[in-house]
């Protein structure tokens, strides 16, 4: 429950002042959010927590400037594919992507990279 509140607050901060965050900070934040998805303690409260993580991740991806997106999506694919080595967890990482155009693009590239390494 507390994590949900923190994530909602962070998503609100990203909405209000997205220009204050460097691309590297957004990248690190995206990796941390995906690691939250894999946390076993969230499995019990999956619905609301995963919604909050997904919403926050959508804003993180949205805040990456268009001019940096093509380079950053490649970096994110590499980083997110290394978050875990277990194939079920890798599926969870792909499924955690929110329903936004950038996230769907990232999900496709990430899925392709994971399938290459299996």
In short:
The chain is an all-alpha fold and 118 residues long. It has helices at 2-16, 23-37, 46-63, 66-81, 87-95, 101-117. 76% of the residues lie in helices and 0% in strands.
Q: How would you sum up this structure, described in words?
A:
The chain is mainly alpha-helical and 118 residues long. It has six helices and no strands. Helix 2 runs antiparallel to helix 3, helix 4 (66-81) packs parallel to helix 6 and helix 5 runs antiparallel to helix 6.
Radius of gyration, whole Å:
14 Å
Helix content: over 70%
Q: Report the strand count.
A: 0
Give the class from helix and strand content and strand pairing: mainly alpha
Compute the number of helices.
Answer: 6
* Average pLDDT metric: 85
The 3D shape can be described as globular
């Amino acid at each position: 429950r507390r994590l949900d509140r923190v994530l909602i607050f962070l998503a609100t901060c990203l909405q209000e002042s997205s220009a204050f965050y460097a691309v590297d900070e957004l990248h690190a934040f995206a990796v941390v959010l995906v690691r939250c998805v894999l946390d076993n303690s969230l499995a019990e409260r999956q619905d609301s927590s995963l919604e909050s993580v997904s919403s926050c991740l959508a804003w993180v991806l949205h805040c990456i400037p268009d001019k940096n997106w093509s380079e950053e999506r490649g970096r994110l694919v590499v980083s997110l594919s290394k978050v875990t080595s277990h194939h079920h967890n890798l599926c969870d990482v792909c499924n955690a992507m929110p329903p936004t155009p950038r996230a769907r693009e990232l999900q496709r590239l990430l899925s392709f990279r994971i399938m290459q390494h299996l």
